[in-house]
């Protein structure tokens, strides 16, 4: 399990939470917590376990906050149904009802005029009825202000709804752009697609050229064959199309896998790490489907680097007596698919190509047709004296070294060691100080040791002891065999 994948998933979870895509954020948070739980089982150092448990607690708190926000938003959705008004809004003045008459001022008047005033009051009442009758046809005008207000409010409500839909669609499109694209596995078994995406795809492996010591010629060729077509797609067209595939040949532990990961990182491509167990199945026809599905997914996620480690176990020489029919079908499908992912022609985009990188320790067992498709065949040798010293510096950059440590002298003593052998020597030497410190102590005393007591500098004597314990894993006869094959079939 890669710590880089855990950190990438945490970053994606936080980005989705900031964008408001809480469902995707919760999926990533749950996946990170599960990955950290699995990683905790493999950690033996109590100090590191405590640190990882603290990080796990922090991530779980973040996930709980996101879950609370989702619950709050869900409660808003439940309460968003509009309530019906219990009664209709009535206008301030109803034209159907006559207004109360204005009380008239009563003034004292002389007695003889009493009848006349009564007649006048009858006239006023009559005139009031006439005026009310005259106002009758204009009753609708008294409702116009309220109806206009309702129309304005309805128009504003529609505009707000349209504006809200546009903003929602805009935010949804922004989130969908930020989400990684998903392969559509229609026509294939869903379990096969999920297995390939879970076990194979590794986006941005985060291995740089500087992390690999020596191998200057191999780096130069891989940059020309893989990296430069990504940077200069206009140049690599026609006869200058990119190479279909590259085969890395060499003894074990020389950095072939690291070179492939560095290619994927420098190109910013999706990295497929394939082995024989990935493309085999006990069901008839499943292996061929897996091969075809792998290359279809690679084209979908292009630009893509497919790294097939130990390719001799998948595509060994055909026509032998020990070859099985199922193995022959898988080889045929692999060869067909590799021809289908050739370099760019004049109408193709080199930035969308699929590059096949392969590595093997037994190049003499590879099928001839596959050897033709892997147009570049390069030799990854054992590190030179300068490369061994550089590899020592890379492996020991996090350790405290004593003043008597001479890396150049150590590099000279490790002639014939592979990169993996040098790493084992560095690891063994870094543990020497700890072994001396805990010698003769009880388990309780070991647990009570402080961190400063455990981190003591590594001395020259530690490296000498480690060199006596760790021998080289590659013989001179093997090196001669590789050099003979590369002289006959190499294409550098």
Question: What do you see in this structure?
Answer:
This protein has 492 residues and is an alpha/beta fold. The protein contains 19 helices and 6 strands. The chain has helices at 3-19, 22-42, 46-78, 114-135, 144-178, 190-199, 216-231, 256-267, 286-300, 325-340, 368-373, 385-395, 407-413, 419-430, 432-438, 443-447, 451-454, 460-469, 476-489, and strands spanning 201-203, 245-249, 270-274, 304-309, 354-360, 376-379. The longest helix is centred in the N-terminal third of the chain and has 35 residues, at 144-178. It folds into 3 domains: 1-73 and 169-180, Phosphotransferase system, lactose/cellobiose-type IIA subunit (Methane Monooxygenase Hydroxylase, Chain G, domain 1), CATH 1.20.58; 182-382 and 475-492, P-loop containing nucleotide triphosphate hydrolases (Rossmann fold, 3-Layer(aba) Sandwich); 385-473, Helicase, Ruva Protein, domain 3, CATH 1.10.8. Strands 1-3-4-5-2-6 form a 6-stranded mixed beta sheet, sandwiched between helices. Keywords: ATP-binding, Cell cycle, Cell division, Cytoplasm, Cytoskeleton, Isomerase, Microtubule, Mitosis, Nucleotide-binding. Its main location: cytoplasm.
């Amino acid at each position: 399990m890669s710590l880089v994948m855990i950190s990438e998933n945490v970053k994606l979870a936080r980005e989705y939470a900031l964008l408001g895509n809480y469902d995707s954020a919760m999926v990533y948070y749950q996946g990170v917590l599960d990955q950290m739980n699995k990683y905790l089982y493999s950690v033996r150092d109590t100090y590191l376990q405590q640190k990882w448990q603290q990080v796990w607690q922090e991530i779980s708190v973040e996930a709980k906050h996101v879950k609370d926000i989702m619950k709050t938003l869900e409660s808003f959705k439940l309460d968003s149904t509009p309530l019906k008004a219990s009664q209709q809004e009535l206008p301030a003045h109803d034209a159907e009802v006559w207004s109360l008459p204005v009380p008239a001022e009563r003034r004292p008047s002389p007695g003889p005029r009493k009848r006349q005033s009564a007649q006048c009051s009858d006239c006023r009442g009559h005139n009031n009825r006439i005026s009310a009758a005259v106002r009758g046809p204009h009753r609708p005008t008294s409702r116009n202000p309220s109806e206009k207000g309702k129309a304005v409010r309805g128009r504003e409500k529609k505009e707000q709804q349209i504006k809200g839909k546009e903003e929602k669609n805009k935010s949804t499109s922004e989130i969908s752009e930020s989400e990684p694209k998903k392969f559509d596995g229609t026509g294939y078994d869903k379990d096969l697609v999920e297995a390939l995406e879970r076990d194979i795809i590794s986006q941005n492996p985060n291995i740089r050229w500087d992390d690999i010591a020596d191998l200057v010629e191999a780096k130069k060729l891989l940059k020309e064959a893989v990296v430069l077509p990504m940077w200069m797609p206009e140049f690599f067209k026609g006869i200058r199309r990119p190479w279909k595939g590259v085969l890395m040949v060499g003894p074990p532990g020389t950095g072939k896998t690291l070179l492939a990961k560095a290619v994927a990182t420098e190109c910013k491509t999706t990295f497929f790490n394939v082995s024989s167990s990935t493309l085999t199945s006990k069901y008839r026809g499943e292996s061929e489907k897996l091969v075809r599905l792998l290359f279809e997914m690679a084209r979908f996620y292009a630009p893509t680097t497919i790294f097939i480690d130990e390719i001799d176990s998948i595509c060994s020489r055909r026509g032998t007596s020990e070859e099985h029919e199922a193995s022959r079908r898988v080889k045929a499908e692999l060869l067909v698919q590799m021809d289908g992912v050739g370099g760019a022609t004049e109408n193709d985009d080199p930035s969308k190509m699929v590059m096949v990188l392969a590595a093997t320790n037994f190049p003499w067992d590879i099928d001839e047709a596959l050897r033709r498709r892997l147009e570049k065949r390069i030799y990854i040798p054992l590190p030179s004296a300068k490369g061994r010293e550089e590899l020592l510096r890379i492996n020991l950059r996090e350790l405290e070294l004593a003043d008597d440590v001479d890396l150049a002298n150590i590099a000279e003593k490790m002639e014939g060691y592979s990169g993996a052998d040098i790493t084992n020597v560095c690891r063994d030497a870094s543990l020497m100080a700890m072994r001396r410190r805990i010698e003769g102590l009880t388990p309780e005393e070991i647990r009570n040791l402080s961190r400063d007591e455990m981190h003591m500098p590594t001395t020259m004597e530690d490296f000498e002891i480690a060199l006596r314990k760790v021998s080289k894993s590659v013989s001179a006869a093997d090196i001669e065999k590789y050099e003979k094959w590369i002289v006959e079939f190499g294409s550098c």
